[in-house]
Amino acid sequence: MLQRTWHWLVLSGVALLVAMGIVAVIVPSGDYLYVPNPARPVAERVKVEGERSPDATGGVYYVDVTLKRARWLDRIAPFARPDGASLVPSHAVTAPGQTFRQRIAAARTEMNRSEEIAAAVALEAAGLAVDAEPRGALIESVAVDVPAAATLESGDVIVEAAGQPVLTPGALRNAVEDLDPGDEVRLRLRRNGKPLERTIRTIAAPDDERRTIIGVSVSQIARIRLPLDVEIDLGDVGGPSAGLPFALEIFQALGNDVDRGYRVAATGKVELDGSVTPVGGIKQKTFGVRSADADVFLVPAGENAATARRYAGGLRVIGVETFAEALRVLKTLPDK
């Protein structure tokens, strides 16, 4: 009788372990995984009116990241995650009250704006007349743990900060960074077309306690009319981080030798004034660029560049602050 009980306990324990393993492999944990994707040529995704056929060597590459729901196994066993993947909590992916599906839809809207701005910047750099009227800084998301979360909302458009006009995201950053962390800043904004004024307490940036922020992610709102037809189609890819490779490829399609025979991967959000600003998923993007055997990886200068270099291996990483700087550094690469 005692032996039967022992066998029953062993079988029950094995069954429980099997059940727990199945749960760990199948059931979502509530967190998300950022997973690397290989960098891919952007030329086949971009069409420019009157474009010239590129040479067969080199090329401009974009790199994206897959965002997917993590399993319990991914959470409790890091070795089970794909190489280069990172686990992130749900609040780092979706804003308060936002579903995952809404986050994906917002990312596709960001992509559309990124395409239009990248085209405007590239065509203007090529000497063409672009009609662009900046109209403010659109709030894409608000961090959950900042004072601004109680006052600002996704979709608000900031048009003035600390008494200074805000026509671009860069103007907002400049106005806020003139303050000390903890200072209050008066904002004028539009919400659903209606003007509002709000006072927000600033905070120190997580990566630099001397830098002042309000804790929002913003993008450019503008009316843009292009002198040439430009079509960009990355399918289901979302977000603004392909702005830099878009702009490089459009500039190259107009007859400029941008890559100079190199496989040039790039990531970075391009603003209407040509500045290149930070993006997420840099670790995963660096893994993706390495897997595509790119020669050089252009990224936003600062923390993005520092992160990319940590995971670069032998890959050459170049940090840039503007689209013009990206063109300059590529032009000065040694002949290949």
Offer a few descriptive terms:
globular, 336 residues, 8 helices, alpha+beta, Ribosomal Protein S5, domain 2, single chain
Query: How many helices?
Result: 8
Sketch the topology as an H/E string, one letter per element.
HEEEEEHEHEEEHEEEEEEHEEEHEHEH
Q: Based on DSSP secondary structure assignment, what is the total number of beta strands?
A: 20
Overall number of structural domains: 2
**Gyration radius over CA:** 23 Å
Secondary structure topology:
Elements: H1 2-26, E1 28-36, E2 40-41, E3 46-48, E4 59-62, E5 65-71, H2 72-76, E6 86-88, H3 100-125, E7 131-142, E8 157-161, E9 164-165, H4 169-177, E10 184-191, E11 194-201, E12 203-205, E13 208-213, E14 216-225, E15 230-232, H5 243-253, E16 263-266, E17 269-270, E18 276-277, H6 282-291, E19 296-300, H7 303-310, E20 316-320, H8 323-331
Parallel strand pairs: 4-16, 16-19, 19-20
Antiparallel strand pairs: 1-5, 1-6, 2-4, 3-15, 7-8, 7-14, 8-9, 8-10, 10-11, 12-13, 17-18
Helix pairs in contact: 3-5, 6-7
Task: Please give a structural write-up.
It is a single chain. By secondary structure, the protein is of the alpha+beta class. The protein folds into two domains: 31-95 and 115-126 and 230-331, 2-Layer Sandwich (Ribosomal Protein S5, domain 2); 131-222, PDZ domain (Pdz3 Domain, Roll). It is built from eight helices and 20 strands. The strands form six sheets. Strands 7, 8, 9, 10, 11 and 14 form a six-stranded antiparallel sheet that branches. A five-stranded mixed sheet has the order 2-4-16-19-20, with helices on both faces. The longest helix is centred in the middle third of the chain and has 26 residues, at 100-125. The radius of gyration is 23 Å and the shape is globular.
